[in-house]
Amino acid sequence: MKVISLRWKLLIYFAISAFIPVLLLGLSSYLQSSHFVQAQFGRYGEHAVEQMRILMDERFQQMNLVAASVIAYLADPQTAPLTGQDPVSYAELEREREIGQVLNMLNHSFPSIISTNIITQSGKIYGSNLLQYENLIKSDWWQSMNTLTKRRYWSSFHDIDYYNPYSISPGTAISLVIPLDEKYNVPADSWLLVDVRAEPILEIFRSFEEDTGASLTITDAFDRIVYQTGSGRVPQDDDIVWTTQLKTTGWKIRANLPYAVFNRSSSVILQNTAFFAALSFILSLLAAIVFASLVSRRLKRLNQSMRDFGLGRMDTKIEVSAADEIGQLEKRFNTMSEQIHMLIQDIERKEQAKKEAELSALQYQINPHLLFNTLNSIQWKARLAGDRDVPRMLYHLTAMLQNNLNITEPLVTIRKELETIEHFLEIQRSRFGAVFTCETKIEEDLEDGLIPRMSLQPLFENIFFHAFTDGAGRIQLEIARDGKDWVRLELVDDGAGFPAALWSGDGRLPSGAQEGRQGGTQEGGHDQHVARRGGLGLANVAGRFKLHFGESCEFQLHSEPGRGSKVTIRWPLRKEDGHGQADQRPDRG
Q1: Which of 57, 239, 370, 579 is an S-S bond match for 256, by CB 3.0 to 4.6 Å?
Q2: Phi, psi at residue 180, to the nearest 5°?
Q3: Distance CA 173, CA 160 (A)
Q4: What pTM was estimated for this model as a whole?
Q5: Helix/strand/coil for 299
Q6: Which residues contact 508 (CB under 8 A, 6 or more apart)?
Q7: Concatenated DSSP letters of 21-73
Q8: Is the separation of the CB atoms in 487 and 449 below 8 Å?
Q9: Where are the alpha helices (DSSP H) in 75-174?
Q10: DSSP summary character for residue 283
Q11: What does the pLDDT look like over 39-80, one tens digit per residue?
Protein backbone atom coordinates (compact mmCIF):
# COMPACT_ATOMS: atom_id res chain seq x y z
CA MET A 1 0.00 0.00 0.00
CA LYS A 2 1.46 3.30 -1.08
CA VAL A 3 1.81 5.86 1.71
CA ILE A 4 0.80 9.44 0.95
CA SER A 5 3.45 11.89 2.08
CA LEU A 6 2.69 14.63 4.58
CA ARG A 7 3.21 17.29 1.94
CA TRP A 8 0.52 15.84 -0.31
CA LYS A 9 -1.80 15.37 2.65
CA LEU A 10 -1.37 19.04 3.53
CA LEU A 11 -1.95 20.04 -0.09
CA ILE A 12 -5.11 17.95 -0.34
CA TYR A 13 -6.35 19.18 3.04
CA PHE A 14 -5.80 22.87 2.34
CA ALA A 15 -7.08 22.62 -1.23
CA ILE A 16 -10.28 20.91 -0.12
CA SER A 17 -10.76 23.10 2.94
CA ALA A 18 -10.36 26.23 0.80
CA PHE A 19 -12.21 25.07 -2.32
CA ILE A 20 -15.30 23.47 -0.82
CA PRO A 21 -16.39 26.61 1.13
CA VAL A 22 -15.84 28.76 -1.97
CA LEU A 23 -17.74 26.25 -4.10
CA LEU A 24 -20.64 26.08 -1.66
CA LEU A 25 -20.68 29.85 -1.30
CA GLY A 26 -20.60 30.29 -5.08
CA LEU A 27 -23.35 27.71 -5.60
CA SER A 28 -25.51 29.31 -2.94
CA SER A 29 -24.90 32.77 -4.42
CA TYR A 30 -25.69 31.47 -7.89
CA LEU A 31 -28.96 29.85 -6.85
CA GLN A 32 -30.11 32.87 -4.87
CA SER A 33 -28.99 35.47 -7.41
CA SER A 34 -30.34 33.53 -10.40
CA HIS A 35 -33.67 33.08 -8.66
CA PHE A 36 -33.72 36.79 -7.80
CA VAL A 37 -32.70 37.86 -11.32
CA GLN A 38 -35.24 35.57 -12.97
CA ALA A 39 -37.97 36.81 -10.66
CA GLN A 40 -37.00 40.42 -11.34
CA PHE A 41 -36.76 39.77 -15.07
CA GLY A 42 -40.14 38.06 -15.05
CA ARG A 43 -41.71 40.98 -13.21
CA TYR A 44 -40.04 43.38 -15.62
CA GLY A 45 -41.53 41.52 -18.61
CA GLU A 46 -44.98 41.51 -17.06
CA HIS A 47 -44.67 45.21 -16.22
CA ALA A 48 -43.45 46.11 -19.74
CA VAL A 49 -46.30 44.22 -21.42
CA GLU A 50 -48.75 45.88 -19.07
CA GLN A 51 -47.31 49.32 -19.91
CA MET A 52 -47.79 48.60 -23.63
CA ARG A 53 -51.40 47.69 -22.96
CA ILE A 54 -51.96 50.88 -20.99
CA LEU A 55 -50.41 53.01 -23.76
CA MET A 56 -52.49 51.37 -26.50
CA ASP A 57 -55.66 51.56 -24.43
CA GLU A 58 -54.91 55.25 -23.89
CA ARG A 59 -54.54 55.85 -27.64
CA PHE A 60 -57.68 53.92 -28.43
CA GLN A 61 -59.63 55.73 -25.73
CA GLN A 62 -58.57 59.03 -27.28
CA MET A 63 -59.83 57.81 -30.63
CA ASN A 64 -63.11 56.65 -29.04
CA LEU A 65 -63.46 60.00 -27.34
CA VAL A 66 -62.96 61.89 -30.61
CA ALA A 67 -65.36 59.58 -32.42
CA ALA A 68 -67.98 59.92 -29.67
CA SER A 69 -67.70 63.71 -29.84
CA VAL A 70 -68.21 63.72 -33.63
CA ILE A 71 -71.16 61.33 -33.43
CA ALA A 72 -72.77 63.40 -30.67
CA TYR A 73 -72.37 66.51 -32.82
CA LEU A 74 -73.80 64.85 -35.90
CA ALA A 75 -76.74 63.33 -34.02
CA ASP A 76 -77.88 66.75 -32.78
CA PRO A 77 -81.30 67.36 -34.37
CA GLN A 78 -80.56 71.09 -34.49
CA THR A 79 -77.81 70.55 -37.08
CA ALA A 80 -78.50 70.46 -40.80
CA PRO A 81 -77.83 67.17 -42.58
CA LEU A 82 -74.86 66.68 -44.88
CA THR A 83 -75.73 65.94 -48.52
CA GLY A 84 -72.52 64.16 -49.52
CA GLN A 85 -72.27 66.49 -52.57
CA ASP A 86 -70.55 69.77 -53.29
CA PRO A 87 -72.52 72.66 -51.73
CA VAL A 88 -75.00 74.40 -54.02
CA SER A 89 -76.12 77.04 -51.54
CA TYR A 90 -74.59 79.29 -48.98
CA ALA A 91 -76.24 77.36 -46.17
CA GLU A 92 -74.67 74.11 -47.37
CA LEU A 93 -71.31 75.86 -47.69
CA GLU A 94 -71.57 77.16 -44.12
CA ARG A 95 -72.60 73.73 -42.92
CA GLU A 96 -69.54 72.15 -44.59
CA ARG A 97 -67.26 74.80 -43.06
CA GLU A 98 -68.82 74.28 -39.64
CA ILE A 99 -68.27 70.49 -39.64
CA GLY A 100 -64.72 71.05 -40.86
CA GLN A 101 -63.98 73.41 -37.98
CA VAL A 102 -65.40 70.91 -35.45
CA LEU A 103 -63.27 68.11 -36.85
CA ASN A 104 -60.11 70.26 -36.91
CA MET A 105 -60.73 71.36 -33.34
CA LEU A 106 -60.95 67.72 -32.25
CA ASN A 107 -57.75 66.90 -34.17
CA HIS A 108 -55.86 69.55 -32.25
CA SER A 109 -57.20 68.37 -28.90
CA PHE A 110 -54.88 65.29 -28.97
CA PRO A 111 -51.36 65.57 -30.45
CA SER A 112 -51.33 61.93 -31.51
CA ILE A 113 -54.42 62.38 -33.77
CA ILE A 114 -53.46 62.68 -37.44
CA SER A 115 -56.84 63.54 -38.83
CA THR A 116 -60.58 62.97 -38.29
CA ASN A 117 -62.76 62.75 -41.37
CA ILE A 118 -66.30 61.89 -42.52
CA ILE A 119 -66.24 59.94 -45.79
CA THR A 120 -69.39 59.49 -47.91
CA GLN A 121 -70.10 56.76 -50.45
CA SER A 122 -69.91 59.36 -53.24
CA GLY A 123 -66.31 60.15 -52.27
CA LYS A 124 -67.12 63.44 -50.59
CA ILE A 125 -64.79 64.04 -47.58
CA TYR A 126 -65.62 66.32 -44.66
CA GLY A 127 -62.74 67.36 -42.44
CA SER A 128 -59.41 67.42 -44.24
CA ASN A 129 -58.86 68.32 -47.85
CA LEU A 130 -55.51 66.46 -47.66
CA LEU A 131 -57.04 62.96 -47.63
CA GLN A 132 -57.04 61.29 -51.03
CA TYR A 133 -60.17 59.16 -51.40
CA GLU A 134 -58.95 57.01 -54.27
CA ASN A 135 -55.82 55.99 -52.42
CA LEU A 136 -57.81 55.26 -49.23
CA ILE A 137 -60.28 52.81 -50.77
CA LYS A 138 -57.46 50.99 -52.54
CA SER A 139 -55.42 50.36 -49.35
CA ASP A 140 -55.29 46.79 -48.05
CA TRP A 141 -56.52 47.54 -44.56
CA TRP A 142 -59.61 49.36 -45.97
CA GLN A 143 -60.39 46.48 -48.27
CA SER A 144 -60.13 43.95 -45.42
CA MET A 145 -62.40 46.14 -43.30
CA ASN A 146 -65.15 46.02 -45.93
CA THR A 147 -64.93 42.21 -46.08
CA LEU A 148 -64.94 41.60 -42.33
CA THR A 149 -67.62 43.83 -40.85
CA LYS A 150 -69.86 46.78 -41.22
CA ARG A 151 -69.56 47.63 -37.55
CA ARG A 152 -66.99 49.65 -35.64
CA TYR A 153 -63.59 48.55 -36.88
CA TRP A 154 -60.04 48.96 -35.56
CA SER A 155 -57.44 48.66 -38.24
CA SER A 156 -54.03 47.00 -37.99
CA PHE A 157 -50.83 48.99 -38.11
CA HIS A 158 -50.66 50.37 -41.66
CA ASP A 159 -48.83 52.97 -43.72
CA ILE A 160 -50.17 56.50 -44.11
CA ASP A 161 -50.26 56.51 -47.95
CA TYR A 162 -53.65 58.15 -48.57
CA TYR A 163 -52.80 61.70 -47.49
CA ASN A 164 -50.99 64.38 -49.41
CA PRO A 165 -47.34 63.51 -48.68
CA TYR A 166 -46.32 67.15 -48.85
CA SER A 167 -48.61 68.12 -45.99
CA ILE A 168 -48.64 65.01 -43.77
CA SER A 169 -45.39 63.11 -43.45
CA PRO A 170 -45.49 59.38 -44.20
CA GLY A 171 -45.50 56.96 -41.33
CA THR A 172 -47.54 54.30 -39.58
CA ALA A 173 -51.03 54.72 -38.20
CA ILE A 174 -53.88 52.94 -36.48
CA SER A 175 -57.37 53.80 -37.69
CA LEU A 176 -60.84 53.67 -36.18
CA VAL A 177 -63.67 53.33 -38.72
CA ILE A 178 -67.32 53.73 -37.61
CA PRO A 179 -70.22 53.25 -40.11
CA LEU A 180 -72.77 56.17 -40.26
CA ASP A 181 -76.29 56.40 -41.68
CA GLU A 182 -79.08 58.96 -41.99
CA LYS A 183 -79.82 59.15 -38.29
CA TYR A 184 -76.50 60.95 -37.90
CA ASN A 185 -77.55 63.56 -40.55
CA VAL A 186 -75.15 62.10 -43.14
CA PRO A 187 -75.80 60.12 -46.34
CA ALA A 188 -76.24 56.36 -45.99
CA ASP A 189 -73.10 54.16 -46.07
CA SER A 190 -70.87 56.95 -44.79
CA TRP A 191 -67.89 56.39 -42.44
CA LEU A 192 -66.24 58.25 -39.62
CA LEU A 193 -62.44 57.79 -39.93
CA VAL A 194 -60.09 58.63 -37.02
CA ASP A 195 -56.35 58.15 -37.71
CA VAL A 196 -53.74 58.21 -34.94
CA ARG A 197 -49.94 57.95 -35.27
CA ALA A 198 -48.53 54.56 -34.22
CA GLU A 199 -44.78 55.38 -34.17
CA PRO A 200 -44.63 55.91 -30.35
CA ILE A 201 -46.30 52.55 -29.83
CA LEU A 202 -44.03 50.82 -32.34
CA GLU A 203 -40.99 52.42 -30.69
CA ILE A 204 -42.04 50.91 -27.35
CA PHE A 205 -42.49 47.54 -29.07
CA ARG A 206 -38.99 47.68 -30.57
CA SER A 207 -37.45 48.83 -27.29
CA PHE A 208 -39.11 45.95 -25.44
CA GLU A 209 -37.91 43.47 -28.05
CA GLU A 210 -34.35 44.78 -27.87
CA ASP A 211 -34.23 44.90 -24.08
CA THR A 212 -35.70 41.48 -23.43
CA GLY A 213 -35.06 39.53 -26.65
CA ALA A 214 -38.74 38.57 -26.72
CA SER A 215 -40.96 38.44 -29.80
CA LEU A 216 -44.34 40.22 -29.82
CA THR A 217 -47.53 39.07 -31.43
CA ILE A 218 -50.72 41.22 -31.32
CA THR A 219 -54.02 39.88 -32.63
CA ASP A 220 -57.33 41.69 -33.01
CA ALA A 221 -60.87 40.55 -32.23
CA PHE A 222 -60.92 38.54 -35.48
CA ASP A 223 -57.66 36.73 -34.53
CA ARG A 224 -55.85 38.58 -37.25
CA ILE A 225 -52.23 39.43 -36.58
CA VAL A 226 -52.06 43.17 -36.39
CA TYR A 227 -48.43 43.24 -35.30
CA GLN A 228 -45.62 40.65 -35.17
CA THR A 229 -41.91 40.91 -34.50
CA GLY A 230 -40.01 41.09 -37.74
CA SER A 231 -37.95 37.95 -37.04
CA GLY A 232 -41.04 35.79 -37.34
CA ARG A 233 -39.72 33.40 -34.67
CA VAL A 234 -41.80 30.28 -34.10
CA PRO A 235 -42.89 30.01 -30.43
CA GLN A 236 -41.50 27.05 -28.45
CA ASP A 237 -43.03 25.04 -25.62
CA ASP A 238 -40.40 26.19 -23.10
CA ASP A 239 -40.85 29.89 -23.89
CA ILE A 240 -41.53 32.32 -21.09
CA VAL A 241 -44.90 33.89 -22.08
CA TRP A 242 -46.42 37.18 -20.96
CA THR A 243 -49.96 37.96 -22.14
CA THR A 244 -52.50 40.72 -21.68
CA GLN A 245 -55.65 42.03 -23.40
CA LEU A 246 -56.67 45.57 -24.31
CA LYS A 247 -59.81 46.76 -22.60
CA THR A 248 -60.91 49.06 -25.43
CA THR A 249 -60.49 46.83 -28.47
CA GLY A 250 -60.10 43.29 -27.08
CA TRP A 251 -56.72 42.96 -28.80
CA LYS A 252 -54.39 40.38 -27.28
CA ILE A 253 -50.72 41.07 -26.65
CA ARG A 254 -48.47 38.02 -26.39
CA ALA A 255 -44.74 38.21 -25.67
CA ASN A 256 -42.67 35.03 -26.14
CA LEU A 257 -39.23 34.97 -24.53
CA PRO A 258 -36.93 32.00 -25.30
CA TYR A 259 -35.91 30.17 -22.15
CA ALA A 260 -32.24 30.41 -23.11
CA VAL A 261 -32.56 34.19 -23.24
CA PHE A 262 -34.52 34.27 -19.99
CA ASN A 263 -31.81 32.14 -18.34
CA ARG A 264 -28.95 34.12 -19.89
CA SER A 265 -28.40 36.25 -16.78
CA SER A 266 -28.26 33.14 -14.61
CA SER A 267 -25.79 31.60 -17.05
CA VAL A 268 -23.58 34.67 -16.76
CA ILE A 269 -23.78 34.45 -12.97
CA LEU A 270 -22.91 30.74 -13.16
CA GLN A 271 -19.94 31.44 -15.40
CA ASN A 272 -18.68 34.18 -13.09
CA THR A 273 -19.19 31.94 -10.06
CA ALA A 274 -17.30 29.11 -11.75
CA PHE A 275 -14.51 31.49 -12.76
CA PHE A 276 -14.04 32.94 -9.29
CA ALA A 277 -14.35 29.48 -7.71
CA ALA A 278 -11.61 28.19 -10.02
CA LEU A 279 -9.51 31.28 -9.30
CA SER A 280 -9.98 30.79 -5.55
CA PHE A 281 -9.06 27.13 -5.89
CA ILE A 282 -5.87 28.00 -7.78
CA LEU A 283 -4.91 30.69 -5.27
CA SER A 284 -5.67 28.39 -2.33
CA LEU A 285 -3.70 25.61 -4.03
CA LEU A 286 -0.70 27.92 -4.50
CA ALA A 287 -0.96 29.05 -0.87
CA ALA A 288 -1.26 25.41 0.22
CA ILE A 289 1.82 24.49 -1.83
CA VAL A 290 3.85 27.26 -0.20
CA PHE A 291 2.58 26.45 3.29
CA ALA A 292 2.96 22.69 2.83
CA SER A 293 6.50 23.17 1.54
CA LEU A 294 7.45 25.25 4.56
CA VAL A 295 5.86 22.83 7.03
CA SER A 296 7.11 19.65 5.34
CA ARG A 297 10.63 21.07 4.97
CA ARG A 298 10.82 21.82 8.68
CA LEU A 299 9.31 18.46 9.62
CA LYS A 300 11.75 16.65 7.30
CA ARG A 301 14.62 18.50 8.92
CA LEU A 302 13.31 17.53 12.37
CA ASN A 303 12.85 13.92 11.23
CA GLN A 304 16.41 13.80 9.82
CA SER A 305 17.78 15.19 13.09
CA MET A 306 15.90 12.53 15.06
CA ARG A 307 17.23 9.86 12.69
CA ASP A 308 20.80 11.12 13.11
CA PHE A 309 20.34 11.13 16.87
CA GLY A 310 18.98 7.60 16.72
CA LEU A 311 22.09 6.52 14.79
CA GLY A 312 24.27 7.67 17.68
CA ARG A 313 25.14 11.25 16.79
CA MET A 314 24.51 12.57 20.27
CA ASP A 315 25.62 16.11 19.45
CA THR A 316 22.80 16.51 16.93
CA LYS A 317 21.07 19.88 17.25
CA ILE A 318 18.43 21.59 15.16
CA GLU A 319 18.13 25.30 14.59
CA VAL A 320 14.87 26.70 15.96
CA SER A 321 13.44 28.77 13.10
CA ALA A 322 10.16 30.00 14.61
CA ALA A 323 8.15 30.17 17.81
CA ASP A 324 5.20 28.14 16.50
CA GLU A 325 4.26 24.54 17.34
CA ILE A 326 6.99 23.08 15.15
CA GLY A 327 9.47 25.47 16.76
CA GLN A 328 8.36 24.16 20.15
CA LEU A 329 9.00 20.61 18.91
CA GLU A 330 12.45 21.66 17.74
CA LYS A 331 13.24 23.21 21.12
CA ARG A 332 12.00 20.14 22.95
CA PHE A 333 14.06 17.89 20.67
CA ASN A 334 17.16 19.92 21.46
CA THR A 335 16.37 19.74 25.19
CA MET A 336 15.64 16.02 24.99
CA SER A 337 18.80 15.25 23.02
CA GLU A 338 20.89 17.25 25.47
CA GLN A 339 19.31 15.51 28.48
CA ILE A 340 19.76 12.07 26.91
CA HIS A 341 23.36 12.92 26.07
CA MET A 342 24.02 14.00 29.65
CA LEU A 343 22.20 10.91 30.95
CA ILE A 344 24.32 8.62 28.78
CA GLN A 345 27.47 10.37 29.93
CA ASP A 346 26.32 9.99 33.54
CA ILE A 347 25.59 6.29 33.00
CA GLU A 348 29.01 5.86 31.41
CA ARG A 349 30.64 7.54 34.40
CA LYS A 350 28.67 5.38 36.81
CA GLU A 351 29.50 2.21 34.88
CA GLN A 352 33.14 3.20 34.83
CA ALA A 353 33.07 3.87 38.58
CA LYS A 354 31.31 0.57 39.12
CA LYS A 355 33.91 -1.28 37.08
CA GLU A 356 36.70 0.43 38.97
CA ALA A 357 35.04 -0.49 42.28
CA GLU A 358 34.68 -4.08 41.12
CA LEU A 359 38.30 -4.14 40.02
CA SER A 360 39.34 -2.70 43.39
CA ALA A 361 37.29 -5.34 45.15
CA LEU A 362 38.79 -8.04 42.97
CA GLN A 363 42.25 -6.83 43.91
CA TYR A 364 41.41 -7.49 47.56
CA GLN A 365 39.60 -10.75 46.87
CA ILE A 366 42.69 -12.94 46.93
CA ASN A 367 41.18 -16.36 47.32
CA PRO A 368 38.85 -15.57 50.30
CA HIS A 369 38.50 -19.29 51.08
CA LEU A 370 42.22 -19.54 51.59
CA LEU A 371 42.17 -16.39 53.74
CA PHE A 372 39.27 -17.62 55.89
CA ASN A 373 40.79 -21.10 56.27
CA THR A 374 44.11 -19.60 57.31
CA LEU A 375 42.44 -17.30 59.86
CA ASN A 376 40.46 -20.24 61.27
CA SER A 377 43.64 -22.28 61.59
CA ILE A 378 45.36 -19.45 63.47
CA GLN A 379 42.30 -19.13 65.72
CA TRP A 380 42.36 -22.85 66.66
CA LYS A 381 46.09 -22.86 67.28
CA ALA A 382 45.69 -19.82 69.57
CA ARG A 383 42.97 -21.62 71.50
CA LEU A 384 45.10 -24.74 71.79
CA ALA A 385 47.90 -22.49 73.10
CA GLY A 386 45.49 -21.11 75.72
CA ASP A 387 45.35 -17.52 74.29
CA ARG A 388 41.82 -16.05 74.48
CA ASP A 389 42.38 -12.57 72.97
CA VAL A 390 43.73 -13.72 69.64
CA PRO A 391 40.79 -16.06 68.85
CA ARG A 392 38.32 -13.32 69.75
CA MET A 393 40.01 -10.82 67.43
CA LEU A 394 40.22 -13.41 64.65
CA TYR A 395 36.50 -14.18 65.09
CA HIS A 396 35.47 -10.55 64.65
CA LEU A 397 37.91 -10.04 61.76
CA THR A 398 36.63 -13.11 59.99
CA ALA A 399 32.98 -12.01 60.40
CA MET A 400 33.81 -8.52 59.18
CA LEU A 401 35.71 -9.81 56.16
CA GLN A 402 32.91 -12.21 55.24
CA ASN A 403 30.45 -9.35 55.15
CA ASN A 404 32.72 -6.92 53.30
CA LEU A 405 34.06 -9.29 50.64
CA ASN A 406 30.60 -10.42 49.46
CA ILE A 407 30.45 -8.21 46.34
CA THR A 408 27.38 -10.00 44.93
CA GLU A 409 25.17 -7.79 47.12
CA PRO A 410 26.15 -4.14 46.59
CA LEU A 411 23.30 -3.01 48.86
CA VAL A 412 22.66 -4.39 52.36
CA THR A 413 20.29 -3.48 55.14
CA ILE A 414 21.32 -0.91 57.71
CA ARG A 415 20.97 -3.64 60.36
CA LYS A 416 23.55 -5.83 58.59
CA GLU A 417 25.91 -2.89 58.04
CA LEU A 418 25.68 -2.05 61.78
CA GLU A 419 26.53 -5.67 62.62
CA THR A 420 29.70 -5.36 60.54
CA ILE A 421 30.58 -2.11 62.34
CA GLU A 422 30.09 -3.86 65.68
CA HIS A 423 32.69 -6.46 64.66
CA PHE A 424 35.01 -3.60 63.64
CA LEU A 425 34.54 -1.92 67.05
CA GLU A 426 35.28 -5.17 68.89
CA ILE A 427 38.58 -5.39 67.03
CA GLN A 428 39.36 -1.82 68.09
CA ARG A 429 38.52 -2.63 71.73
CA SER A 430 40.95 -5.52 71.52
CA ARG A 431 43.62 -3.10 70.26
CA PHE A 432 43.04 -0.09 72.52
CA GLY A 433 40.96 -1.42 75.34
CA ALA A 434 37.79 0.20 76.71
CA VAL A 435 39.04 3.74 76.16
CA PHE A 436 36.32 4.80 73.68
CA THR A 437 32.56 4.72 73.67
CA CYS A 438 30.14 4.40 70.73
CA GLU A 439 26.45 5.30 71.04
CA THR A 440 24.16 4.14 68.23
CA LYS A 441 20.59 5.42 67.79
CA ILE A 442 18.39 4.25 64.88
CA GLU A 443 14.68 4.48 64.26
CA GLU A 444 13.25 0.99 64.45
CA ASP A 445 11.55 0.98 61.05
CA LEU A 446 14.79 2.02 59.31
CA GLU A 447 16.72 -1.17 60.14
CA ASP A 448 15.42 -2.71 56.88
CA GLY A 449 16.49 0.34 54.89
CA LEU A 450 19.21 -0.23 52.28
CA ILE A 451 22.71 1.22 52.37
CA PRO A 452 25.80 0.53 50.20
CA ARG A 453 27.87 -2.36 51.56
CA MET A 454 31.00 -1.29 53.48
CA SER A 455 29.99 2.39 53.49
CA LEU A 456 30.26 2.96 57.27
CA GLN A 457 33.56 1.14 57.87
CA PRO A 458 35.70 3.79 56.01
CA LEU A 459 34.10 6.49 58.16
CA PHE A 460 34.94 4.61 61.40
CA GLU A 461 38.42 3.85 60.11
CA ASN A 462 38.99 7.60 59.64
CA ILE A 463 38.02 8.14 63.29
CA PHE A 464 40.45 5.55 64.71
CA PHE A 465 43.28 6.19 62.28
CA HIS A 466 43.15 10.00 62.28
CA ALA A 467 40.86 11.40 65.01
CA PHE A 468 41.76 9.12 67.96
CA THR A 469 45.51 8.99 68.11
CA ASP A 470 45.46 6.70 71.18
CA GLY A 471 42.02 5.16 70.58
CA ALA A 472 40.37 7.24 73.27
CA GLY A 473 37.29 9.26 72.50
CA ARG A 474 33.54 9.34 72.06
CA ILE A 475 31.56 8.34 68.94
CA GLN A 476 27.86 9.06 68.27
CA LEU A 477 25.99 7.46 65.36
CA GLU A 478 22.37 8.48 64.69
CA ILE A 479 20.20 7.27 61.79
CA ALA A 480 16.71 8.80 61.45
CA ARG A 481 14.10 9.80 58.92
CA ASP A 482 14.45 13.15 57.21
CA GLY A 483 10.97 13.73 55.93
CA LYS A 484 8.85 10.86 54.64
CA ASP A 485 11.13 9.27 52.05
CA TRP A 486 14.65 10.23 53.11
CA VAL A 487 17.23 8.89 55.58
CA ARG A 488 19.69 11.09 57.46
CA LEU A 489 22.89 9.69 59.03
CA GLU A 490 25.08 11.69 61.41
CA LEU A 491 28.45 10.39 62.66
CA VAL A 492 30.12 12.62 65.30
CA ASP A 493 33.44 12.18 67.10
CA ASP A 494 35.34 14.38 69.55
CA GLY A 495 38.78 13.59 68.13
CA ALA A 496 41.60 15.76 66.81
CA GLY A 497 39.74 17.13 63.79
CA PHE A 498 41.40 18.94 60.87
CA PRO A 499 40.91 22.11 58.78
CA ALA A 500 37.72 21.59 56.79
CA ALA A 501 39.19 23.58 53.87
CA LEU A 502 41.54 20.67 53.20
CA TRP A 503 38.60 18.58 51.95
CA SER A 504 36.56 19.82 48.97
CA GLY A 505 33.60 17.54 49.59
CA ASP A 506 34.30 15.16 46.69
CA GLY A 507 37.59 13.69 47.91
CA ARG A 508 39.88 16.12 46.10
CA LEU A 509 42.40 18.27 47.98
CA PRO A 510 43.27 21.81 47.05
CA SER A 511 46.57 22.20 45.19
CA GLY A 512 48.25 23.65 48.28
CA ALA A 513 47.31 20.62 50.36
CA GLN A 514 48.72 18.27 47.77
CA GLU A 515 51.97 20.22 47.59
CA GLY A 516 52.23 20.13 51.39
CA ARG A 517 51.77 16.36 51.35
CA GLN A 518 54.35 15.88 48.63
CA GLY A 519 56.89 18.16 50.28
CA GLY A 520 56.36 16.64 53.71
CA THR A 521 58.26 19.44 55.42
CA GLN A 522 55.91 22.37 55.02
CA GLU A 523 53.85 23.60 57.91
CA GLY A 524 50.67 21.59 58.34
CA GLY A 525 51.90 18.81 56.09
CA HIS A 526 50.81 16.08 58.51
CA ASP A 527 47.30 17.51 58.81
CA GLN A 528 47.09 17.73 55.06
CA HIS A 529 48.22 14.15 54.65
CA VAL A 530 45.68 13.00 57.22
CA ALA A 531 42.90 15.02 55.55
CA ARG A 532 43.75 13.60 52.16
CA ARG A 533 43.54 10.03 53.38
CA GLY A 534 40.24 10.77 55.10
CA GLY A 535 39.01 12.66 52.05
CA LEU A 536 39.66 9.67 49.81
CA GLY A 537 37.62 7.49 52.14
CA LEU A 538 34.73 9.96 52.16
CA ALA A 539 34.93 10.36 48.38
CA ASN A 540 34.71 6.58 48.00
CA VAL A 541 31.63 6.48 50.22
CA ALA A 542 30.05 9.45 48.44
CA GLY A 543 30.65 7.86 45.03
CA ARG A 544 28.98 4.61 46.08
CA PHE A 545 25.94 6.38 47.51
CA LYS A 546 25.52 8.39 44.28
CA LEU A 547 26.09 5.28 42.20
CA HIS A 548 23.17 3.47 43.84
CA PHE A 549 20.86 6.30 44.92
CA GLY A 550 21.53 9.04 42.36
CA GLU A 551 23.03 12.48 42.34
CA SER A 552 20.43 13.77 44.79
CA CYS A 553 22.36 12.30 47.75
CA GLU A 554 23.90 14.91 50.06
CA PHE A 555 27.26 14.79 51.95
CA GLN A 556 28.52 17.25 54.50
CA LEU A 557 31.70 17.31 56.63
CA HIS A 558 32.19 19.71 59.47
CA SER A 559 35.57 19.58 61.30
CA GLU A 560 37.62 21.89 63.41
CA PRO A 561 41.12 21.16 64.77
CA GLY A 562 40.90 19.98 68.38
CA ARG A 563 37.05 19.92 68.41
CA GLY A 564 36.24 16.79 66.42
CA SER A 565 34.37 16.12 63.19
CA LYS A 566 30.81 15.55 62.02
CA VAL A 567 29.83 13.63 58.85
CA THR A 568 26.26 13.94 57.56
CA ILE A 569 24.83 11.76 54.75
CA ARG A 570 21.32 12.10 53.34
CA TRP A 571 19.88 9.61 50.79
CA PRO A 572 16.47 8.35 49.58
CA LEU A 573 14.84 5.63 51.65
CA ARG A 574 14.76 2.24 49.96
CA LYS A 575 13.93 -1.11 51.52
CA GLU A 576 14.07 -4.81 50.68
CA ASP A 577 11.11 -6.21 48.71
CA GLY A 578 10.28 -8.85 51.35
CA HIS A 579 12.23 -11.68 49.67
CA GLY A 580 15.67 -10.54 50.66
CA GLN A 581 16.07 -8.61 47.38
CA ALA A 582 16.79 -4.91 47.16
CA ASP A 583 13.90 -2.74 46.03
CA GLN A 584 14.89 -1.42 42.58
CA ARG A 585 12.57 1.56 42.54
CA PRO A 586 13.88 4.67 40.76
CA ASP A 587 15.87 7.10 42.83
CA ARG A 588 13.74 9.65 44.59
CA GLY A 589 14.84 13.19 43.84
Answers
A1: 239
A2: -130, 150
A3: 6
A4: 0.46
A5: helix
A6: 535, 539
A7: HHHHHHHHHHHHHHHHHHHHHHHHHHHHHHHHHHHHHHHHHHHHHHHHHHHHH
A8: yes
A9: 90-109, 133-138, 140-148
A10: H
A11: 777 788 888 899 989 989 998 999 999 999 998 888 888 778
